[in-house]
Design goal:
With about 375 residues, this protein is of the alpha/beta class. The chain has 15 helices and 9 strands. The protein binds ligand V47 and iron/sulfur cluster.
């Protein structure tokens, strides 16, 4: 939709003046503030938010909706922390696992040669240090040199780097030299200190999470950012989280994608909290797209949100559906997400994106289009 068309709709639409003013700012490419974000959550109707977010999404990425051929490895669920929302760590899950290096390498070897990215994240194991994780990267890269390895959340990194006695910059440089390509967005949860203390008080602080990502960006290691929403936090706390990310991105430009993660309430210490509605999920995607004007991509992680909603999210500011995943991730299946065995073929991914009226683009880890995009 062209700017003039959007402006005409905004002018004609029967919307209150304060929302019209926010829409005008967005159409003009101006930044909106935290309070305006809260207003969008509280009084922006879903259709209105979808229209604005789709407009901004199109301005940034055209009709493109990205996916990647990837797979996940979760090395262990044995954790030094005890986050209340977690269904995955050995504290709550019925199973307890730690893969050996050989088992991890077996998973790498057995992947389709067309897969381009490996995502590694897991619990914070008390006995494993930075040399273990560095050696693991070296072995993976020796096995599959072309594979991009996006590995270790800031919380895992914080633990292994502190244990080694290195500074953050030294630890990250060492891991980069072993083959670390980028850092996933996990562990951000919610930055607001009061809520963070309540739901994951043992975890690395918000300041540490942000410092690790900022240092990584300065070392040329890109990363993603997440936010766990739909539990105890209020709208202002969500906006505070987005604002801290936007400020960091202004300084470094190192974030690729923002991924809102909906809280799932099965099998954890927060099971009494009901999950938020689909309307709330779509509002979250849209407000993220409208506020994070310096983030190139908003990702719907389909194993967390479900296939149907992932498709709908493409009309609420989302331009990335993550990937084919393969069946090894358990974080969401254990927390009650609909997909117990998350895997999608390229054909399914392409069909899903086309069904939403968007252009499927197979990307690499840096959002470059792969030349051999598969048409089905
Ligand atoms: O930090 C854990 C979340 C995250 C629950 O960077 C839960 O491309 C909802 O960060 N309900 C880890 N969420 C996963 C993650 C991620 C996933 C996909 C792609 C990328 C990326 C990153 O999972 C944790 C936490 O926020 N999580 N338990 C739960 N019960
Ligand atoms: Fe451990 Fe991560 Fe679960 Fe927290 S969310 S208990 S850090 S595995």
């Amino acid at each position: 939709m062209a700017e003039e068309e959007l402006l005409a709709i905004i002018k004609a639409a029967n919307i209150p003046d304060h929302l019209r003013e926010i829409a005008r700012k967005i159409s003009d490419g101006q930044r909106i503030g935290r309070e305006e974000g809260v207003t969008l959550f509280t009084s922006g109707e879903l259709g209105f938010l979808g229209m604005l977010a789709s407009h901004v999404c199109h301005r940034k990425n055209g009709d493109n909706a990205y996916f990647i051929r990837n797979f996940h490895i979760e090395p262990t669920n044995i954790c030094v922390n005890k986050c209340s929302f977690c269904s995955y760590s050995h504290h709550f899950s019925a199973t307890k696992w730690e893969l050996t290096v050989d088992e991890i390498l077996e998973k790498v070897k057995s992947q389709d040669p067309e897969v381009t990215e490996l995502h590694i994240t897991g619990a914070v194991h008390p006995d494993r240090d930075i040399r273990y994780y560095g050696d693991l990267l070296l072995k993976i890269v020796a096995e599959r040199p072309a594979l991009h390895v996006k590995a270790y959340s800031a919380v895992e990194l914080d633990y292994m780097i502190k244990k080694s006695g290195m500074s953050i910059a030294e630890g990250l440089s060492y891991l980069k030299s072993c083959g670390l390509g980028s850092i996933p967005g996990g562990g951000a949860e919610i930055f607001d200190e009061t809520i963070r203390k309540e739901i994951c008080g043992m975890k690395s602080s918000a300041a540490t999470w942000l410092e690790i990502h900022e240092t990584a960006h300065k070392l040329g290691i890109p990363s993603n950012a997440t936010m766990l929403y739909g539990h105890l936090e209020n709208y202002l706390q969500r906006m505070d989280h987005l604002d801290r990310l936007r400020q960091l991105q202004d300084r470094t430009g190192g974030f690729n994608a923002f991924i809102p993660l909906k809280f799932h309430n099965n099998n954890n210490a927060m099971s009494d909290i009901p999950e938020v509605s689909v309307v709330e999920d779509m509002k979250m995607y849209a407000v993220a797209r409208l506020f994070l004007d310096n983030f190139p991509h908003i990702k719907a992680y389909w194993p967390a949100v479900g296939r149907k909603l992932a498709r709908i999210s493409l009309s609420f500011g989302v331009d990335d559906l993550d990937g084919t995943i393969n069946d090894s991730t358990q974080i969401y299946s254990l927390a009650g997400a609909e997909d117990q065995n998350p895997v999608m073929t390229v054909s399914q991914m392409v069909a899903m994106i086309k069904g939403a009226g968007r252009m499927p683009v197979e990307r690499d880890s840096f959002y470059n289009k792969r030349v051999d995009i598969v048409e089905v």
